[in-house]
Amino acid sequence: QVRMQESGPGLVKPSQTLSLTCTVSGGSITTDYYYWSWIRQPPGKGLEWIGYIGYSGSTYYSPTLESRTSISRDTSKNQFTLQLSSVTPEDTAVYYCARFLGGTQYDYWGQGTQVTVSS
Fold this sequence. Notes:
Number of helices: 0
Distance between the termini: 39 Å
Largest sheet: 7 strands, mixed
Radius of gyration: 13 Å
Shape: globular
Helix content: under 10%
Mean pLDDT: 97
Low-confidence stretches: none
Strand content: over 45%
């Protein structure tokens, strides 16, 4: 059973960098053919895909967020991290980490963490 848990500050000031970590247990983030994703849901809106880091360390980002997004990993801790720079209140959302299988399939999700961008 894979478990995923997001962690990080719940409040970030405008123009700063949002940083969240997803800790994975029950499975390795280097296992072939899995992609470790970040997804968010702003208040009153649908889910928005941010990007992923693959089993080989390759990354792929949403074109709308790519210029501000970086996803990295620490294989020794079985963690991957989202950094989103120059945040604005429009980045306020519940942020989820999830395991992506390809196509539209996600099989495991973290519980989500609320991040509010406000001064």
